[in-house]
Structure formats: C-alpha cells, structure tokens
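Input (structure):
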C-alpha cells in the first residue's frame, strides 16, 4: 500500500507538465495514446515526438538509483548522526550561538590586540636571549628613541663633507682635538643642514629632554673644535674612516617627554607623551622633502649634499603603511574571489554563507591570538594581515569544496540532509586533511629562531584550523536551518522565493533539481513506471537531448579537469621527472638565500625610510641598527648583598680579562670551523675595557698613562651613566662583528660567541 501511495504521488507530479500540454492540444489523434491511472489521473504519451525512454533508458535510470543507494550506503553512520543532530533546533542554536560569541569577542579584542603587537624583532620564544632581555628590561630604562640624519657628498668628485686633510692631533697638551676648515669643500652646506635640524627641535624644548649629537654643532664657528672630551669620538663616529669624509651623520636621542621616559613602541601605541617624538620625526621628513624639491626645481648648490632621514617613528610608519597596503590587497583579492565563487556556485545566497565563514574564521582567530600576545609570546605587527589573508583563502576554498559537492548531490535528486551527509563525507574529508596538513606545515615554522616568523606561523595555523571548523560546523548548520532558501537558484538567488515577500510555490519550483524531483522515486517506482509505459525522462527533469543521449547509449562528457587528472595518472612517471627538473633552478637558488632578523623584512621596499635604514646599516655598521649586547651581572657577596661594580677595581679587572679570554676563544673556535676570522679584545666596548685594554689597569700612550686625563675629561663618567644601571649591579657590553651578522661567517660568529660565553 505504501508503494502504491508513493507511486500515485510521484505520477501525479509527473503528469503536471503533460496536463498543461493536453490543455493546449487534443489528446486523441494519430500517434496519441491515453491511459487512465488510479486516482483519476490521465497520462498522455506521444510515441513519435515525446522522449519516451523505455528499455535501455529504464535500465540506465535503475543503475543510477543503484549508484545513489551505494553512495548512501558508503556514508558512515557517524556522518548521518552528525547531520541528524544538526537537523535539530537545539544543537543548531548551540552552534550558531558559539560562532556569534566568537565573532563578538574577536571584534571586541581587535583594538586591544593592536596595542599588544610588536614592531621590533623580539628574541625567540623560550630562548636564553628572551630571558636575558627580560632581565635587561627590569634593570635598565627603555632605550631612547633615535632620530638620525645622514648627509652624503654629491658634488664634484673628491669633495668632502669635512676637510679631507682633517686629522686627529694626539698631543698631550692640549687634549686630542680635530682641526677642520669650515670654508673648504662642502662643510658649509653640511653645517647649514645641522643648524636647520637643530632649529626644528627648539619648539619641543619645553616638553622633551633630548641630546643632539653633531660634529658641526660642536665645532660651529671654530677652526679647532673646543669640545675636547668628545671631539675624537664624534669624528670617528659621525664620519666613517673608510668613506674619507663623504658620509656623515647627525643624531638625536629623545629620552623623555612630559616627564615620561619615551621608548620605541610608544609612538606606535599612540601614547600622548610621545606626540612630540612623532611630530619631530615628521618635521625632519618634511624638511628633507622640501629641500629635495627645492634642489630639483632650482638646481642650486644645496643639491651637492644629499639628506636622508631615518627614525624609529619613521620606520614604524613605514611598517604600518606596509601592513595597511597588505590588508588592502587582501580586500581586493576577496572581491575577485567572490566573482569566481559566483561563477562556480551560481547562487548569490550561498555567497552569504561564504561571507559568514570568512568573518567567523577571522574574528575567532583574533580572539585566540589576543591571550597569546598578552601572556604567551610576542606577536609582530605583520601577523594579523597574514592570518587575515590565510583565513580568507582557506574559508573561500573550503566553502567552495563543500557547497559545490552539496549542489551536485542536490542536482541528483537527493534531499537536503542526504546531500549534506554525502558532501560532508567526501568534501569534508578533503577539507579536514587539507587543513591538518597546512596547519602542520605552519606549526613546523615555530622551530625557526625568530619571533617575526614564529608569531606569523602560529597565527596562520590557528586561522587554518578555524577555517576548517567553521566550514564543517557553521555551513551545515545554516544550510539545514533554511534549506530551501539557500538552494533556491532562480534568477541566481536574487528572487524573493522562499522569503516572507515571495511565494512558497515559486520557491519550491526553483529549488527543484534539474535531473530529479526532490523526493526521488525508489527503484520499484521506476520499474513500475517503465513497465506501465509511463513517460520517464522529461517528466523527471531530464531534457529531451539528454534523454536522447541516454536512449542512444552516449557516454557522459568528462570535465576538463577530470581529463587532465586522467592524463597525469597515465603519465605519472614522466610528470614526476618533469617536476624534478623544474625544481632544479629553485634548489640552486636556495644556496643564495640569506636571512635577516632586523626590521628590514617588515618594511616596504619602496619607502624612503627603508632605503635610509639600509644605508645607515651599510655605512655606519650593524652595531647601530642591530647591536649585540652582553648583560653582565654583579656577583652576590657572602653577606647576601650585591656587589657595587662602580669603582670596584678587582671586579673590573676580572671582567676585562674574561672578555679578553672570550675573544681569544671565539677566534680559536672559528678557525677550527674553517672561518678566517679574528676577534680582538677591542671588539668589546664597555665600562671595564677601552680599546682592548683594561680601564682599571690604565691605558698607556707611549710611556704615559692617559687614563687619568680621560677620566678628568668626564668621558668615562658619561659612559658609566649609559652602560650601568641605577642599582650599580649590572652593566652592558657591546660586541662588534666585522662581518655581516646575517652572512655565513656572521652566523658562525654569533653561535660561537654564545657557546663560549657559557664557559666564560
């Protein structure tokens, strides 16, 4: 009886288009046959013109139903139970509430997360350097913000920024000095730049405490520089010897503003007391642009001295602009991806599902990254754009996989829950494996010893996992909550079908698949219809051309990607060889790759600050941009107090001898490794060592110890204030490397220094 009821309902649905045709023309005549079916339903067939599929086509449709039943049987019960669970109102509300909560939390913590991001290169998480930096931050105040102006001779060949014949005069009386002639060469132009930059700082004197270092400022208007305690130091620092006076530098150290100690990140964090720092940086940058513009327009002699400006706020602005540019590219890429999605899905309503997946994946990742940045590890400012790009890409891909397979199953006539079960079992398996593989790849990057990569890798791994979870939970939940709405494709989903303003009947017709009715007949129904001469084919949604192809036994056409896959499988060995050959040039290029751990990878390639930052490191050494510092702690005495290292001659001599021995051990280890590198004691700069010698043992210039004169000139008093903490129980020593720190020899030097320092 149930079979007869199903058959009667099915035949009633099949007869509707034929009934409309019968009203337009008589049912009797040549080639026309009528048959009365139970329930008063009359079915008319025309054997000559209608595509009545008998015999072979009935057999094919029975085989199709066999395949459908086999596909359903292959879906594990766990997937069926999962779909049945999501088909209930309670679990759907739980899933939707969870993702809405993560979305709200992610939006709420986005701005607080921005304030936790780092624009500097932090030590690797869990490393000895991280522990040393944490100790250093407790004992020393934040380092001052540095503004640097580089001046370069651009006049006739041989012209210099200072007198090319200027020499250091090492006489005992008067103290060592530098002589130069302000009239010669380009000295006057360079001195004007120095005075102009200093004038720009005057309006911030009432709010900020800063130090201005310029050779021309110290020696302005004098043939012999009167500042004897700094003249030799400034000459060597501001005019590197290897450039012979053609490259110079002007420095400003911003120490505090409005009574608050300034630090590098305060400008990025938009602290109010750091406003003068950002303003002064902008003033210097505008001065450079104005001067460059005047040189180009007028061609005056000022063009003979080029000016480049680099500062911490300027570098941070460069990095932030790069981040914003990356976010803009992600937005443009998203728009293009939605165009491709629409071409694939042909349904605007399903694009709303993809949009929800993207937003939930991004905000959930941000919600998880906030506690990581606050309590676990430093997160660099480039991590959010990367995780947004990854979440965009993966959410779009995974949504396309699932929805495409779901639509294919619906086109075969399966109801929504059965189509979703098959889609989750097939496409869902692909999504889970793909996401797990990609997340594992990102997690392996956590082993790399740089915070720039590790924080981005962790954010990307979380973004991939969130994309997988949201696709396999939120998308099925939303589809089952309104199945007809999201599968209605009439007018590409732009109609009002299955909405409060549309007709349910139109929505139901629009939701009908192209090959079968929503409630597909069973095998017995098709067999009965075929044996009764019922019109199978057009009546179940198969077109006349398709029915004719089936009747003639034509093979279905394969997709171009399926053909490509078959060709690749047939010639797998040849494809493997070709791919291996194509990888050879990339493998060879890997040998030429170098890595950089300073701020350069975070900066834009075309920004003026990037060029100035690189030139600053190339001209004045990496010690200025990437310093290597050793933190030396005073020992604890027998009474439990910490030794005061200032004025303690025994401690100073012992520490100096340790550094001298460390330099010798590093050299021996590098030579044993095959590196032709010699580290000298003078490569250490600290309170206890001067030019390779020990301060407490004196420094002889010939037979005379000049250390008392240097102390009288207050050089070491100033140096001690910079290198020693306020508690006088810790000091810092700078280590100089003669090679590029990121070269092979530089890497070996860094590793060897760490190893030998443990035993020192």
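Output (sequence):
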């Amino acid at each position: 009886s149930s079979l007869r009821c199903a058959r009667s309902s099915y035949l009633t649905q099949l007869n509707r288009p034929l009934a409309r045709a019968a009203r337009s023309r008589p049912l009797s005549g040549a080639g026309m046959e009528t048959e009365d079916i139970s329930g008063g339903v009359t079915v008319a067939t025309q054997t000559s013109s209608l595509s009545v599929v008998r015999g072979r086509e009935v057999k094919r449709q029975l085989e199709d139903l066999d395949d459908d039943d086999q596909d359903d049987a292959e879906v594990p019960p766990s997937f069926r139970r999962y779909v049945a669970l999501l088909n209930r109102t309670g679990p759907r509300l739980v899933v939707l509430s969870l993702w809405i909560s993560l979305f709200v939390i992610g939006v709420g913590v986005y701005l607080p997360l921005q304030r936790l991001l780092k624009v500097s290169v932090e030590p690797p998480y869990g490393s000895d350097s991280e522990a040393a930096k944490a100790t250093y931050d407790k004992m020393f105040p934040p380092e001052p913000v540095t503004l640097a102006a580089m001046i370069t001779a651009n006049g006739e060949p041989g012209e210099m920024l200072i007198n090319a014949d200027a020499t250091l005069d090492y006489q005992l009386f008067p103290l060592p000095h530098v002589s130069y002639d302000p009239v010669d060469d380009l000295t006057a132009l360079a001195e004007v730049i120095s005075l102009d930059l200093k004038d720009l700082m005057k309006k911030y004197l009432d709010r900020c405490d800063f130090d201005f270092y310029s050779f021309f400022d110290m020696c302005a208007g004098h043939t012999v520089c009167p500042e004897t305690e700094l003249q030799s130091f400034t000459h060597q620092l501001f005019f590197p010897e290897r450039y012979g006076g053609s490259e110079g530098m002007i420095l400003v150290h911003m120490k505090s503003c409005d009574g608050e100690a300034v630090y590098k990140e305060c400008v990025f964090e938009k602290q109010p007391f750091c406003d003068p720092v950002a303003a002064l940086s902008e003033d210097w940058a505008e001065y450079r642009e104005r001067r460059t513009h005047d040189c180009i327009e007028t061609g005056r002699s000022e063009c003979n001295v080029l000016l480049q400006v680099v500062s911490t706020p300027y570098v941070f602005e460069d990095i932030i602009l790069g981040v914003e540019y990356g976010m803009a590219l992600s937005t443009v890429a998203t728009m293009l991806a939605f165009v491709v999605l629409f071409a694939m899905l042909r349904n605007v309503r399903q694009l709303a599902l993809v949009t929800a997946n993207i937003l939930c994946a991004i905000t959930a990742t941000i919600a998880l990254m906030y506690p990581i940045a606050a309590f676990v590890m430093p997160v660099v400012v480039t991590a959010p754009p990367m995780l947004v790009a990854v979440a965009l890409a993966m959410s779009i891909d995974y949504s396309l996989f699932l929805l495409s397979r779901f639509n294919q199953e619906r086109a075969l006539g399966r109801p929504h829950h059965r189509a979703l079960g098959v889609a989750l079992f097939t496409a869902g398996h692909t999504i889970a494996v793909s996401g797990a593989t990609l997340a594992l790849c990102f997690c392996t990057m956590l082993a790399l010893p740089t915070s720039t990569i590790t924080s981005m890798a962790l954010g990307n791994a979380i973004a991939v996992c969130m994309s997988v979870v949201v696709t396999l939970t939120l998308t099925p939940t939303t589809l089952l909550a309104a199945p007809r709405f999201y599968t209605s494709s009439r007018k590409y989903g732009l109609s009002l079908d299955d909405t409060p303003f549309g007709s349910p009947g139109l929505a139901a017709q629009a939701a009908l698949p192209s090959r079968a009715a929503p409630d597909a007949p069973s095998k017995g129904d098709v067999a009965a219809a075929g044996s009764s001469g019922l019109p199978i084919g057009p009546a179940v949604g198969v077109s006349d051309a398709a029915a004719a192809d089936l009747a003639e036994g034509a093979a279905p056409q394969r997709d171009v990607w399926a053909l490509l896959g078959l060709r690749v499988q047939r010639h797998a060995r040849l494809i493997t060889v070709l791919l291996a050959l194509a990888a050879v040039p990339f493998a060879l290029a890997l040998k030429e790759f170098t890595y950089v751990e300073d701020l350069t990878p975070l900066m834009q390639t075309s920004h003026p600050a990037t060029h100035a930052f690189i030139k600053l490191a190339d001209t004045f050494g990496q010690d200025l941009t990437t310093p290597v510092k050793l933190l030396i702690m005073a020992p604890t005495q027998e009474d439990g107090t910490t030794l005061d290292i200032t004025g303690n001659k025994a401690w100073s001599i012992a520490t100096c001898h340790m550094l001298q021995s460390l330099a010798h051990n590093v050299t021996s280890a590098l030579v044993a490794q095959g590196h032709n590198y010699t580290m000298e004691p003078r490569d250490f700069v600290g309170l206890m060592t001067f030019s390779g010698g020990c301060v407490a043992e004196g420094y002889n210039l010939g037979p005379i110890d000049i250390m008392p004169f240097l102390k009288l000139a207050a050089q070491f008093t100033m140096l001690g204030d910079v290198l020693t903490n306020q508690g006088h129980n810790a000091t810092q020593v700078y280590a100089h490397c003669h090679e590029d720190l990121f070269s092979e020899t530089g890497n070996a030097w860094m590793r060897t220094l760490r190893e030998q320092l443990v035993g020192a």
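Notes: The radius of gyration is 39 Å. The chain has a mean pLDDT of 75.
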